[in-house]
Amino acid sequence: MSLVAGLLLPRSTDYPSLGFDILDGLRYSLKRAGQDNARFITENIGFGEDHDLNYARAEKLVLQENVDVMIVYCNAGNAEPLYKLAGIAGKPFIFLDPGMQLPEVAAPPHCYHISLQGIHACRIAGYMAGEQNRKVLMATSFYDGGYRGPWGYTRGLAAAGGTVCGNYVSGYKETEFNIDNYMQLLQHSGAQSVAACFSSYLANLFIKALKERDPSATALPFYCSPFMAEEILLAQCDFPGGTFHAIVPWSTTLQGEEQDVFMQVIRREKNKQANIFHLLGWEAGLLSLHAGKEGASALNGFSYDSPRGTVTIHPATRQTYAPLYKGVIVAGDQGKCALNILEMIPVSASEHEAVLDDKPEQGSGWKNNYLCI
């Protein structure tokens, strides 16, 4: 019997193909496993912050289309209102989650998050920035400041003995974007490293502004958030000089059998390079197949081989954890930014739990699904 998958897909100004790429990753993951006749029914949920709309669209797919599995790109905060529906339907709900918010409640049975571990990556980058008791300048976009990346940084650098000596928060209007305050802090705060938490067009603007300044703007080492080092974005940015470290969940340059198959399939079928959204769809296909054969409960504790390495669904959090990768942003073709992977960072179950359990008292600001602006 052919699988019927329902998808709630948001829109993104900076990543307009996000939904298409997730769907293609899912389609070709299933096709590789012999599911040539799988059916996909999609619903658009805007930027994903309207909980009533999300619920209504998901309920329609469950009741009217009788989908076998629901796949949703969203943050933890936008996933949680759908947990009740998953329990009522008794069908697996798979959430594709950048991992830049912390869950308020544990995911119940039938609900599983494929996480890109964004906060965990920021925490490691923060630790690197704060090593040797360094003073760290926090540079954050107006957008990223509303998620939990900066929290991950502060927890990591504190664990390393570092301290925050200044905070730069960018504006969000392109015509008014500048780094004057950043330059002032750089000169007068005593900073020894920079923790840079940016994404989407604001990362591009920040990198561009650094390049347009004198070399003092990039004199200190930068420790970048994972989505500042996202490769679609980097290919648009001129390298500004300096040293830029990054912790990422995946890269196009990783080596391995699953990675090779994944990259080749997307190139052959879509005539484009695979990206992080294809990866999320690809992994959703692996989970959908396993749940279809063994039942949704079999996903608890399930481990599978992915292009990013061995991924495991933690039986308590029902979120995935997987290796992360240490890299540097360098000058690539035609002077654009490129990501060079240096080494794999194993992630244990206990480390995964520790990151999700370490929560600030104040809630996060933005409700949009991450990267959906």
Automatic annotation (TrEMBL):
Residues 6-326 form the Leucine-binding protein domain. Gene3D superfamilies: 3.40.50.2300. InterPro entries: Leu-bd, Peripla_BP_I. Keywords: Signal. Coiled coil: none annotated. Belongs to the leucine-binding protein family. This is ABC transporter substrate-binding protein. It comes from Paraflavitalea soli.
